[in-house]
Amino acid sequence: MSKRSVILGVTGILIVGIVVYNLPISIPYAQKVTLSIFTIAALLWMTEIIPLHATAFVIVLLETLFLRDFPIGTFFHSFFEPVIIIFLGGFVLAAAFQKYGVDSILARVILSKTPPTPFAILLSVMFITAVLSMWISNTATTALMIGVLIPVLRELEDKRFKKGLILSIPFAANVGGIATPIGTPPNAIAIGILAKNGVDISFLKWMELGLPISIFGIIMISILLYLIFKPTAHKLFIPLPPKAPLKANQKQVIAVGILTILLWLTGPLHGYSSAVVALIPIVIFFGFGYLRREDFNSIGWDILMLVGGGLALGTAMQQTGLSSWIVSQIDPTRFGIIWLVVIFTSVTLIFTTFMSNSATANLLIPLMVSLSVSPLILSIVVAVSSSFAMALPISTPPNAIAYGSGEIKVKDMAAVGVLIEIIALLFMVFAGQYLIKFLIGGL
Fold first, then answer.
1. Which of 26, 22, 25, 21 is nearest to 39 (CA)?
2. pLDDT tens digits, residue range 290-302?
3. Is 34 a member of any domain?
4. Burial of 355 (0-12, 13-18, 19+ CB in 10 A)
5. In degrees rounded to 5, what are phi and psi of residue 392?
6. What are the helix (H) ranges across 266-368?
């Protein structure tokens, strides 16, 4: 997009924001300003005229310029919330795993133990991808797995089943990220916004909820892929590179990774927060030279800023009372919890099909926490549902990477992706909301 197009687009969106501010609505000045900022952020995130993380800075700039009754730290603090540190720790861990080939080692170990049947290989590819995406970004995981498998799969004679195997990678990355707080930005956004509203969800507590949903997703998607892209052969062989002994630095990186994950999982026993634990890999890997400045610079700072911007937007909506006002216009008491889950899961899936799941979570979760009916359940429903939207290449970066391989068409992705979204909606209505209520509570 040319600079002229960007300038015209941003100018148009700012004009829309001014129009929204001047609407004849009887609300206080601060709420009008925040509604205008919300509109501008939503349009910038939907159109991606400027990068998503740049929109995060636009939010904070507008908040500090026009909400001067609030201390400046109210909004800047969002960029150093504990959830940001947790995510940073996850990124550092991922950087070390990738630099020292730990992710490739894991992929080889699991595939080497897999029976040579098509469904077993499909399930193994999805399992490896999902496990990696719990700790490494979904995008990086997909890039790794596509890079490892595409050269091999291109030699596969069963062209139809090959499409299923390739699609299994982004789909598994999308749902695998649900399992941990650091797996995907919507999880972090939900945890961060809920924490600001007095609801603390620990690393382990999220995993108790997210892991079963991820497992359900993997099983459901693997069955769909197998049935839609049914293989012609009963056996399938994937050649793997020869096994090499672990080097000392690989063993050390694995040890730090295991220690960090164990400490994340045992928070209730030792009493330290997940953010404090996240500092361990940061200090060790950078302090002792496992990772260097170029590794630091390549960390997903854009994602961290995007999450921070979403938290800042949520803070403004809460502090000014805008979210409460919006919710009062909706009047959720007219609906039962089942209909609310249907409505907000559907809205989330539709939004995320065409825009970033992080942007969707940033827009919807601040509204959910202000609802008078089950705000905790609905906040998590939005976060989880955003990871099930995968009907198009533009729906998620992993989808785009898989589509970019040139081995699949949009109709191949949509054929499975739409079914996944329908089943995800049914799951959230008939099982997901009850799982959330049972494991975390029904606040």
1. 21
2. 999 999 998 878 8
3. no
4. buried
5. -130, 160
6. 267-270, 274-287, 293-297, 301-320, 322-330, 337-354, 357-368
**Does residue 25 sit within a domain?**
no
Question: Per the structure, how many domains does the chain have?
Answer: 1
Distance separating alpha carbons of residues 42 and 245, to the nearest angstrom: 50
Within-domain flag for 36: no
- What are φ and ψ of residue 298, in 5° steps? -90, 0
Average pLDDT, the chain: 84
Closest to 359 in 3D by CA, of 389, 333, 329: 389
> Both tokens of residue 224?
């769909």
Range of the domain at 335: 81-289+321-441
- Supply 341's token pair: 């889950």
Whole-model pTM? Answer: 0.71
Q: Does 13 map to a domain? A: no
* Least confident among 143-147, 356-360, 410-414: 143-147
Structure tokens at 170: 């982004």
Whole-angstrom distance, CA of residue 186 vs CA of residue 181: 9
